[in-house]
Design brief:
The chain is of the alpha+beta class. It has two helices and two strands, in the order E-E-H-H. Helix 1 crosses helix 2. The protein is elongated, with a radius of gyration of 23 Å.
Length: about 100
């Protein structure tokens, strides 16, 4: 197991010191960048009382994106499976008839 490395990240107007696996550093930094970009977008486009409102909006957006991505990944194998079953059914119909 690799040693965890300390990383300083800034989300919104707060700094956090976290310890992560070195192989995850790039992913974490890209995610933090995306979160901060969305925070700025929501701050610009929507009225909010404070940073917590914008963080909540970004959290909801991010979670929805994850659910949509997961749902899309589930549907594709099912569609391929359905197609495979239809092919098998057609072959059986040919063999019987």
């Amino acid at each position: 197991m690799q040693e965890l490395i300390p990383v300083n990240i800034i989300i919104g107007d707060r700094s956090y010191r976290i310890r992560i696996d070195p192989s995850d550093e790039e992913t974490v930094r890209r995610t933090v960048k995306l979160i901060n970009e969305k925070l700025l977008e929501f701050k610009t486009n929507f009225a909010g009382k404070d940073m917590q409102d914008y963080v909540a909006m970004v959290l909801l957006w991010y979670a929805t994106e994850q659910v949509n991505t997961a749902d899309a990944g589930v549907e594709k194998p099912q569609a391929n499976l359905l197609s495979a079953f239809q092919d098998i059914e057609a072959q059986l119909d040919q063999a019987i008839g």
